[in-house]
Amino acid sequence: MITSNLIKNLSKEKGKSVEDLARRIGYTPKNLNKNLKRETVSTKELMLIANEIDVVFEQSHILGKW
Fold it and tell me: Where does the signal sequence lie (predicted)?
């Protein structure tokens, strides 16, 4: 699932709109929606969002060969 859709679905399940979520993490709804649409949500933003909607954020890494 695309990150933006996952965030929107989880927010909805928790009874929070993306607009409310944006304000709670210190962003304008316009900026958060822009980042979600472009799939440019930073790790920091993902951690803040996860905290607000009470889910666990785990970051995975893809490592190349040396």
Answer: none
The number of domains in the chain is 1
Could you give the CA distance from residue 63 to residue 54 in angstroms, rounded to a whole number? 29
Q: What is the pLDDT, as a whole number, of residue 66?
A: 61
Output the six-digit token pair for 3.
Answer: 């990150």
Distance CA 57, CA 46 (A): 7
As averages over each run of 10 residues, the pLDDT of the chain (66 residues) reads: 85 92 94 90 91 87 65
Q: How far apart are CA 59 and CA 56, in angstroms?
A: 10
48 within domain boundaries: yes
Residue 58 lies in a domain: no
8 Å CB contact between 6 and 49: no
